[in-house]
Structure formats: structure tokens, C-alpha cells
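Lecture notes, part 5. Sequence design as translation. It can be helpful to think of inverse folding as translation between two languages: the language of shapes and the language of residues. The source text, in C-alpha cells, appears below.
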């Protein structure tokens, strides 16, 4: 008998952390404490969670045979047989209906963003995930759509530097995932059914990770000193928050090369106390600089 826990695991709730990128425009548009935009952004977040979960289920159904041969993915509800495929597709319908109900009450640009996210990820599930490099760029596109969706939902401008930073950090995580998948297959002495992994090499991925890591830090640093950033926030002290981004990237690279804790990038981001602490400090520092600079005179230019 299938338990509610198995149905819940089918949704991959741990992956919902990615959808918090929707809140970035809200914070940097100085509307975090405005009830209307905050509620709208929360709705946008929920719609992305529902849509993403529906895609995960479809992807699991498409990859069920390959997942059964994978040392970790074989425990997923569909691969393990703890949730019937017929039940899974009913849940997909419910999720999409709920997402559509939320999106119908929001503006058209946001609806287009969510629809694009769904279509692109469907294409990824059935074809694009097997195209070398493009597979990781599609993952990155998903993150960018989350940021743009958050901006369109509340009708605010999003800095091109933030979009670029999102691109680089998502490429970083995407290439890290591919690297971990290759090493995991080698560690267990099995050949992966993912054809795209045959086109990657660890040394090549390490080069891509170096480029993406540098791009992340540089684009974020340039955002903090961009003329529009200085004008909107009224302070040039945002540059100091770059240290958190730099440390977070370095910490992840350390975990990747010295430990085995990055085999699942999402798990590493949610279980490593150093990365969690750095993320919390970064968010709190940004909020103080953006919203409470008048309270602390030394934060003004």
C-alpha cells in the first residue's frame, strides 16, 4: 500500500529550494516588506513548485528503467514501484491544474514565463538532457526563468547583472552535478545509461566549473557597484557582500574536491552548515544594507 510519504517524495520537495530564486527580485527591488508584492511572489513561488514537481514526475516516468539501475535513483517512488504510474500521472494533472489556477490570477508575462519553463523542461526530459553542454544550459535557463518570473510577477526591473550571475551560478551547479554523476558511476563500477555523460570528462568539467565560478563572483561584484545599484540602494557598501558569495563558491569547490558530499548538489547546499550559515549571513547583510541603511549612518555613502 502506497503511503502519503511516498506520494510526497514523488514531488521531490527538496528540489523546491531552487524556486527561492523567485524571491530575488522582491528583495533587490526593495519590496520585501510590502504585503502585496510579498504575497504575489509567494504565489509565484508556489506555481513554480507545482510546475516543477509535475516535470519531475514526468521525467521519472520517462527514466524509470535507467533509474532502477542507478545506485541512488532506484529508491525514487516510481523506480522502486512504491507509487503506481497511473497514480503518478493523476498527480501530474492535479499539480498542473493547481498551478494553472494560481497563474490565472497573475499577469500575462508571468504566465508566459511559467509556461516556457514547463515546455523547456519537458523538452529537456525527453531530448535535450542528452545533448552535451546544452543539457546544462537548459538547467541554467530554468533558474533564469525563475528570476525573471519573480520580477514579472511584481512588475519590477531586474538587473542584467543579476541575470548573468544567476546564469553563472546555475551553470556552476549544473556542471557540478554532471561531475558528481560521472564519479558516482565510476565509484560503483557501473556504466551510466545517460548517454550525455559519455561526452563529458572530469578534467573538462573542472575547467567549466572554474569559468562558471569566476563568472559568478565577477558578475555579482559588478552588480554591487553598478551605477543603478548605487542609485537605488544609496550605498556603495553592497560590494562587501561579495565575500559571502566568494566563500560560498570556495566552500562548494572544497566539498567537491576533498569530500564526497556534493554527489547531490541540492543536498550539499541544504546540509553543509558552512554553506547554510554563509547564505543566511549574505541574505541578512543584504537586507540590512538595502532596507535599514538609514538606521546605521555608516552604511550610507
Amino acid at each position: 500500500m502506497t503511503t502519503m510519504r511516498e506520494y510526497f517524495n514523488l514531488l521531490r520537495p527538496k528540489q523546491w529550494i531552487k524556486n527561492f530564486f523567485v524571491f530575488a527580485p522582491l528583495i533587490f527591488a526593495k519590496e520585501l516588506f510590502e504585503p502585496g508584492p510579498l504575497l504575489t511572489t509567494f504565489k509565484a513561488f508556489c506555481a513554480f513548485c507545482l510546475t516543477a514537481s509535475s516535470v519531475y514526475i514526468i521525467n521519472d516516468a520517462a527514466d524509470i528503467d535507467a533509474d532502477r539501475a542507478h545506485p541512488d535513483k532506484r529508491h525514487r517512488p516510481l523506480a522502486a514501484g512504491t507509487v503506481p504510474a497511473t497514480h503518478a500521472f493523476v498527480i501530474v494533472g492535479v499539480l498542473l491544474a493547481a498551478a494553472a489556477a494560481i497563474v490565472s490570477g497573475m499577469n500575462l508575462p508571468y504566465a508566459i514565463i511559467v509556461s516556457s519553463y514547463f515546455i523547456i523542461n519537458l523538452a529537456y526530459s525527453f531530448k535535450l538532457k542528452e545533448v552535451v553542454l546544452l543539457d546544462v544550459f537548459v538547467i541554467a535557463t530554468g533558474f533564469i526563468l525563475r528570476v525573471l518570473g519573480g520580477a514579472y510577477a511584481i512588475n519590477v526591473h531586474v538587473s542584467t547583472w543579476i541575470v548573468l550571475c544567476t546564469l553563472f551560478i546555475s551553470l556552476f551547479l549544473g556542471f557540478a552535478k554532471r561531475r558528481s554523476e560521472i564519479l558516482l558511476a565510476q565509484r560503483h563500477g557501473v556504466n551510466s545509461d545517460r548517454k550525455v555523460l559519455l561526452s563529458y570528462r572530469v578534467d573538462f568539467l573542472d575547467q567549466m566549473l572554474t569559468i562558471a565560478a569566476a563568472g559568478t563572483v565577477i558578475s555579482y561584484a559588478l552588480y554591487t557597484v553598478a551605477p543603478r545599484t548605487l542609485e537605488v540602494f544609496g550605498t556603495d557598501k553592497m560590494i562587501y557582500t561579495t565575500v559571502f558569495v566568494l566563500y560560498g563558491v570556495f566552500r562548494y569547490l572544497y566539498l567537491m574536491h576533498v569530500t564526497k558530499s556534493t554527489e547531490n548538489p541540492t543536498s550539499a547546499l541544504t546540509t553543509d552548515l558552512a554553506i547554510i550559515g554563509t547564505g543566511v549571513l549574505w541574505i541578512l547583510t543584504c537586507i540590512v544594507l538595502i532596507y535599514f541603511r538609514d538606521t546605521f549612518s555608516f552604511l550610507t555613502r
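The translated text above is only one of many valid answers, since several sequences can fold into similar shapes. The longest helix spans residues 160-188.
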